[in-house]
């Protein structure tokens, strides 16, 4: 029996995974693709944005959202049953694309394909890692040398990278293909330097392709045919040998903001909150009084983007909800107060 190929899309928060997947679906060329989307909070931003493309190559039934934060930690409870159901369908998909959350480790997910009920029916065609060229050029994944030196002076046994750096390295070390995305935001000389740095992190033979808005021919990405589950033990991870890992280094919560009189004050406050609290990622939808369309709001590091995407549907509640993600220790109530929301339950 032919195994159904699955492509794992990994990459740090906001690298452009959802944007890439939309592009893949819109250019699927008749291939029936099922999507498994894993993200933070129950706001369902990624799923809603992909569904928004309304492409017949990917009916809404084929988009499955796992909103538990990190697919790598709940493989047995969430991911395996989801895969079983997909594979058991009377007409299974031609290809499965799995978007992991930006904080997920790809290796435990690939290992799930070694499970008996899965390995005979599906295979990991390839792991694609997206890298945010803009963030990399700004040094957001490099460790802060001064802070690390100070910490080591206080504790000479300290020998680990920052949580962001470790995650970044794990995602790259697992990749069969690396997309250096957001190439449009970085000049050619800097892009060259960024690419040279990336080569130190990836396995030999892995290509780096520069992309903007995830625009790449699906043929270059689907059909790598790497059977990654058979060789995953050879791909190093900072978490090798650990029974379990956790994501205590990061924190996320959802803010409910109701309907807004105007978006501008919130946008201004958000810029301040990102800078003061070093927020990694904010995304969600806003309902603005008098506006029939919903406002999509996204920030990746300091870069905030927003646009009205489509009208609120009659069966949808007009409400503003944002997922906020940062490193652990976020002062949730201070952030909520800045953005005009009430206290956030712990
Ligand atoms: N300028 C530019 N913006 C991009 C590019 N790719 C994505 N973006 C923007 O970056 C933001 C994040 O993109 P997403 O596709 O949601 O990123 P993601 O990796 O799915 O994010 P998470 O699932 O939250 O980790 C959005 O505002 C996109 O419009 C690109 O190549 N160039």
Automatic annotation (TrEMBL):
GO terms for biological process: cobalamin biosynthetic process. Gene3D superfamilies: CobW-like, C-terminal domain (3.30.1220.10), P-loop containing nucleotide triphosphate hydrolases (3.40.50.300). The keyword Secreted does not apply. One of its GO terms (molecular function) is nucleotide binding. It holds the Pfam family CobW_C. It catalyses: GTP + H2O = GDP + phosphate + H(+). It comes from the Bacteria. Keywords: Chaperone, Hydrolase, Nucleotide-binding. InterPro entries: CobW (IPR012824), CobW-likC_sf (IPR036627), CobW-like_C (IPR011629), CobW/HypB/UreG_nucleotide-bd (IPR003495), P-loop_NTPase (IPR027417), Zinc-reg_GTPase_activator (IPR051316). SMART domains: CobW_C (SM00833). One of its GO terms (cellular component) is cytoplasm. Belongs to the SIMIBI class G3E GTPase family. ZNG1 subfamily. NCBIfam families: CobW (TIGR02475). Zinc chaperone that directly transfers zinc cofactor to target proteins, thereby activating them. Zinc is transferred from the CXCC motif in the GTPase domain to the zinc binding site in target proteins in a process requiring GTP hydrolysis. This is CobW. It comes from Sphingobium quisquiliarum P25. The lineage of its organism: Bacteria, Pseudomonadati, Pseudomonadota, Alphaproteobacteria, Sphingomonadales.
């Amino acid at each position: 029996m032919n195994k159904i190929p699955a492509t794992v899309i990994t990459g740090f928060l906001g690298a452009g995974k959802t944007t890439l997947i939309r592009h893949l679906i819109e250019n699927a060329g008749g291939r029936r693709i099922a999507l498994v989307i894993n993200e933070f909070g129950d706001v369902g931003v990624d799923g809603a944005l992909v569904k928004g493309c309304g492409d017949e190559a990917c009916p809404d039934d084929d988009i499955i959202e796992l909103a538990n934060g990190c697919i790598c930690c709940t493989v047995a409870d969430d991911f395996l049953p989801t895969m079983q159901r997909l594979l058991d369908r009377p007409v299974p998909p031609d290809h499965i694309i799995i978007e992991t959350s930006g904080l997920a480790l790809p290796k435990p997910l690939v290992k799930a394909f070694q499970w008996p009920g899965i390995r005979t029916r599906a295979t990991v065609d390839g792991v694609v890692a997206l890298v945010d060229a803009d963030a990399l050029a700004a040094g957001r994944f490099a460790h802060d040398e001064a802070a690390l030196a100070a910490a080591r002076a206080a504790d000479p046994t300290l020998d680990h990278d920052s949580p962001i750096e470790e995650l970044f390295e794990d995602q790259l070390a697992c990749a069969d293909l690396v997309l250096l995305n957001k190439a449009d935001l970085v000049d050619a000389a800097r892009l060259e330097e960024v690419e040279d740095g990336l080569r130190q992190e990836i396995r030999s033979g892995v290509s780096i392709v520069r992309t903007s808005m995830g625009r790449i021919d699906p043929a270059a990405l689907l059909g790598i045919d790497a059977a990654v589950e058979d060789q995953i033990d050879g791909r190093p991870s900072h978490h090798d040998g650990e029974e379990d890992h956790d994501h205590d280094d990061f924190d996320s919560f959802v803010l409910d903001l109701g309907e807004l009189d105007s978006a501008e004050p919130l946008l201004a406050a958000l810029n301040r909150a990102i800078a003061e609290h070093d927020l990694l990622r904010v995304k969600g939808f806003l309902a603005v009084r008098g506006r029939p369309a919903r406002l999509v709001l996204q920030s990746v590091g300091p870069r905030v983007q927003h646009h009205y995407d489509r009208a609120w549907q009659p069966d949808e509640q007009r409400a503003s909800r944002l997922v906020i993600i940062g490193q652990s220790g976020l002062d949730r109530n201070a952030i909520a107060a800045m953005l005009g929301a009430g206290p956030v339950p712990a």
